[in-house]
């Protein structure tokens, strides 16, 4: 892999996540998003017109910062992989809304952001998906669990001590979102959510068959990774 210029990929923001369980071709980065308008101005120059328009629709600084920084860092990482300039990269979206890099269709990537944190994953050999969620005490996770959890997962979460149940639910949620993003399915596909069962108590890699866009089971693996305090992070990848 080419070395990313530090002037673009700020080491104070982007940290490479290295884990023995991840395939060697998977590159995973965790971003600590600065809440600073001046920092955002320095990064906006790599974004295209559509990205800038989308960024400007965010009224809260935290949301605007997440989008601008994540897109800037994604472009920096993809530029290092392709040898192109970050500004010249062009994205396209298929009929299912899954983005890809024009002229480099085999280079898979996925991003997720929540609060002031973000994840970016890349691979030239397999499909990937990531999700990061900030734990929110105000979230009514029990209501969401009715459509998001399988019966087995619901039993597992309810069997945990009360103070651990929100985190166990979020482990299920992040795993499912990462898995569905890896297949190209949207998280709103409730029947797939309930039909997929993960073990929120496990710290090991879990592999299972997930229904794909063509409704053919797709073999995928996933694991949760360490993140900043108060966040739950998960990455999924194809075999």
Written account of the structure:
Mean pLDDT is 89; it is low at 1-7. The protein has a 4-stranded antiparallel β-sheet with strand order 1-2-6-5, covered by helices on one side. It has a 4-stranded antiparallel β-sheet with strand order 7-10-9-8, covered by helices on one side. The protein is globular. A hairpin with a 5-residue loop joins strand 3 and strand 4. It starts with 13 loop residues before the first strand and ends with a strand. With 239 residues, it is of the alpha+beta class. It has helices at residues 37-43, 49-56, 61-82, 141-148, 151-158, 165-183, 190-195; strands at residues 14-17, 27-32, 91-93, 99-101, 108-114, 117-123, 128-134, 206-211, 217-225, 231-238. Helices cover 33% and strands 25% of the residues. Helix 2 (49-56) runs antiparallel to helix 3 (61-82) and helix 5 packs antiparallel against helix 6. It has 2 domains: 14-126, Ribosomal Protein L22, Chain A; 131-238, Ribosomal Protein L22, Chain A (Alpha-Beta Complex).
How would you sum up this structure in a few lines?
The chain is 33% helix and 25% strand. The chain has 239 residues and is an alpha+beta fold.
What attributes characterize this protein structure?
single chain, 239 residues, alpha+beta, Ribosomal Protein L22, Chain A, four-stranded antiparallel sheet, 7 helices, disordered N terminus
């Amino acid at each position: 892999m080419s070395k990313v210029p530090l002037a673009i990929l700020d080491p104070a923001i982007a940290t490479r996540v290295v884990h023995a369980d991840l395939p060697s071709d998977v590159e995973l980065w965790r971003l600590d998003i600065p809440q600073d308008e001046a920092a955002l101005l320095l990064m906006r120059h790599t974004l295209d017109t559509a990205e800038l328009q989308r960024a400007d629709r965010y009224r809260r600084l935290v949301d605007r910062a997440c989008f601008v920084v994540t897109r800037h860092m994604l472009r920096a990482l993809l530029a290092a992989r392709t040898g192109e300039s970050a500004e010249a990269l062009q994205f396209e979206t298929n009929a299912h809304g899954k983005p890809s890099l024009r002229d480099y269709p085999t280079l898979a990537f996925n991003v997720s952001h929540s609060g002031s944190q973000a994840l970016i994953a890349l691979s030239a050999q397999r499909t990937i998906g990531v999700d990061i969620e900030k734990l929110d005490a105000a979230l009514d996770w029990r209501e969401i669990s009715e459509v998001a959890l399988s019966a087995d997962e619901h039993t597992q979460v309810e069997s945990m001590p009360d103070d651990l149940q929100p985190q166990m639910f979020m482990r299920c949620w992040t795993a499912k979102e990462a898995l569905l993003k890896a297949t190209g399915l949207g998280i709103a596909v409730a029947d797939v959510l309930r039909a997929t069962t993960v073990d929120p108590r496990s710290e090991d890699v879990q592999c299972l068959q997930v229904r794909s866009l063509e409704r053919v089971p797709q073999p995928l693996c996933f694991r949760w990774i360490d993140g900043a305090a108060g966040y739950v992070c998960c990455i999924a990848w194809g075999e």
